[in-house]
Amino acid sequence: MPFIIAHPLADTLRSALRAWGLAWRRLAARAGSACPACGGAARGGRLCEACAQDVLNGVLDPEVLRCERCALRLPAAALPRDLPAGVCLCVDCLLHPPAFSQAVAAFDYEPPFDSLIQRYKGEHRYVMAGALAHLLYCAWMAADGDAPAVQALVPIPASRTSLRRRGFNPAGELAAALGAQARLPVLRTALHRRREDGRRQASLGRRERESAVLGLYACRRSLSGLHVGLVDDVMTTGSTVDAAARVLLQAGAARVTVLVAARTPAVPQRD
């Protein structure tokens, strides 16, 4: 009969390392630094207060319509007709509801703040994960309302090609920084990729993205009853997070909320 031997020393060591990591992040958050956006005075590698407010104004402005499901910015003319009062959905979410319940983004992926993502990923500045996580956390808290609390964070796994090119997983580092701020566990290895095709998502159109992510992800563990926060750096068509959310729900998750640093505005579809 199989049995498990407890290792209290290992558990104590893991707890101590987690506590040390949190203490280090809190200390680093007080240190002076240059704002990644304007170069002015800031703290802990985050944006200065003025730039952070400029970023968040874009997603918190009550005059700006957004799909309440996928966070896509909507012109008033793009709203489907005959929606119930108080409901704001894009056509895609109305006709083809995604697996996730809600998406929260810190800003739209367009100038001037798209440069934050470009520097984070293109210049391999993974230390900017803290700045992006802080913006996302603020937007998340503002948008959360009465939604059930997220209990764990799961990052979208990077491809091997991406890991070799960048040296880190942008979604993974963002999830780690967000988890530290929100004091939530990060299940880094819960999702894994079942195949590698070498294609970059940024080079694919909507239909190609949808095809590329079919059966792409699998879940390594049971998520029974958990409200999961699915973390990615940029959400474009939503195909990636939708495919991942379906896998998390199949693994027992009760609900999936998508948390992304940036949301790409609507783009023309390509065949």
From TrEMBL:
GO MF term list: transferase activity
Domain Phosphoribosyltransferase: 164-265
Similarity section: Belongs to the ComF/GntX family.
InterPro entries: ComF/GntX_DNA_util-trans (IPR051910), PRTase-like (IPR029057), PRTase_dom (IPR000836)
Protein name (record): Phosphoribosyl transferase
Residues that span the membrane, as ranges: none
Keywords per UniProt: Transferase
UniProt cross-references to PANTHER family, sorted A to Z: DNA UTILIZATION PROTEIN YHGH (PTHR47505)
Pfam family, one: Pribosyltran
